[in-house]
Amino acid sequence: MLENILLVISVLLIVLVLLQSSKASDAGQIITGSNQALFGKVKERGLELFVSRLTMFLGLLFFVISFVLFVA
Fold first, then answer.
1. Is pLDDT larger for residue 70 or for residue 27?
2. How far is CA 44 from the centre of its chain?
3. In whole angstroms, what is the distance from residue 1 CA to residue 37 CA?
4. Mean of the pLDDT values across residues 57-64?
5. Does residue 6 contact residue 67 with C-beta atoms inside 8 Å?
6. What residue ranges do the domains of the chain occupy?
7. How far apart are CA 65 and CA 60, in angstroms?
8. How far apart are the C-alpha atoms of 21 and 43, rounded to whole Å?
9. What is the pLDDT of residue 33?
10. What is the DSSP string of 11-37?
11. Claim: this prediction has a pTM higher than 0.90
12. What's the gap between Cα 16 and its chain centre?
């Protein structure tokens, strides 16, 4: 039963990570010297915040279930 739940969570995690916006472009701006990305406060809002929190929750759940399956 837990194996099936772990499989569903892992697929959902993959989909959610692919839906998130890329932060790699921000790192490129910092290296080239753009102050906007370095000092600007950009907060996640709306759907982006929900997807980020859901990814964090599912990641924690994935870790806990994996640990329980490992110990049992």
1. 70
2. 13
3. 45
4. 97
5. no
6. 2-71
7. 9
8. 13
9. 58
10. HHHHHHHHHSPP-HHHHHHHHHT-HHH
11. no
12. 7
